[in-house]
Amino acid sequence: MDDPKEAPAPTDLIRLGDTLRALPPSCGPVRLVAVDGHAGSGKSTFADRLSAALGDAPVLRLDDLASHEQLFDWTDRFAEQVTGPLSRGASARYAPYDWTARRFLPPRTLAPAPVVLVEGVGAGRRALRPLLARLFWMDRDAEASWQRGRRRDGPEQSAFWDDWIRAETSHFAADPSVSFADALVRETPEGYVVSSGTDVTPGEHSGIT
Fold first, then answer.
1. Which has the closest alpha carbon to 57: 100, 23, 88, 99?
2. What residues contact residue 192 under an 8 Å CB cut-off, 6+ apart?
3. pTM of the predicted model, to two decimals?
4. C-alpha pair distances (Å), 13 with each of 6, 17, 117
5. Nearest partner of 75 among 8, 175, 199, judged by Cα
6. pLDDT digits over 35-84, tens only?
7. Which of 84, 152, 78, 156 lies closest to 120 in space, CA to CA?
8. What share of the chain is helix, strand, coil (3-state, %, to 5)?
């Protein structure tokens, strides 16, 4: 009997951070790095850990740009408030959305750091990709991600999740990200395995068909 294949070792995030810092700038002086994937796939946690490996690189969360009325129709605001200023070497100023109060809060400032992480569903969308230095896709399928998110948020958010899943499915059907990803990120008990150079097709890893 053949020996079972050994599981790949977790990726050294410090070394990955060094690789990202060495990339050419993609948005003015900034290397804009996106972390995309289904809701509940672990984007926020991975982005936080990658930020720490980068010496606390700024993390822009797309939950701050989206709203109940515009779950995915935020690209104009993103360009005006975030990538426009960053491309000129200026600080971004964006108004974060309060999902409880259902209103936008006073603006936050995000300086043009060497690496800025953008995490959220749709971070690798068509309108953003020309400005990205790297695009990571969380390698967790749609149903598993959504179930994880529902457990996290509890039954009181069930109706929101029903609406969200319909919107997310429609978004990725029209504007998929996974097939353009530079690397897949798989969460394991030991850490993250980042697989680059993979030939990814929609539906193979994402649950998108």
1. 23
2. 10, 11, 13, 46, 49, 185, 186
3. 0.90
4. 20, 6, 14
5. 175
6. 999 999 999 999 999 999 999 999 999 999 999 999 999 999 999 999 99
7. 78
8. 35, 20, 45
